[in-house]
């Protein structure tokens, strides 16, 4: 079967809690439901959105956390990737932003996800750098521990 090509620009979000752990979602490609993976929050820009506006919208839609665009730091990494998901092959530019969350502001809710996201997202977890370094589970991007280290180092530098 021929995949449908899609080109997009995305904002990825790394919510980081007071214990320096990053929030990742667990899900699967509907074409490969037996191959789950962990991934960062985020998605494509809509209309004339800026990357930070898309980051704020995606953070709310995917995990129910509200934040203003001024609260996002970064980008801490940028890359272009190509991957397959469902009937599509995506080529996407990604910019990774971080945001500090704590207390009730860190409560996760899937209530605002699109239906396809609800159908393919199976959970969430807060991960430390050490846990990311030692896991044998699939995590996208593979460099998320390195990006988290940059976020933590910037906070420590004040």
From TrEMBL:
SUPFAM superfamilies: Nudix. InterPro entries: NUDIX_hydrolase-like_dom_sf, NUDIX_hydrolase_CS, NUDIX_hydrolase_dom. One of its GO terms (molecular function) is hydrolase activity. Its cofactor is Mg(2+). Residues 5-150 form the Nudix hydrolase domain. Keywords: Hydrolase, Magnesium. Pfam families: NUDIX. This is NUDIX hydrolase.
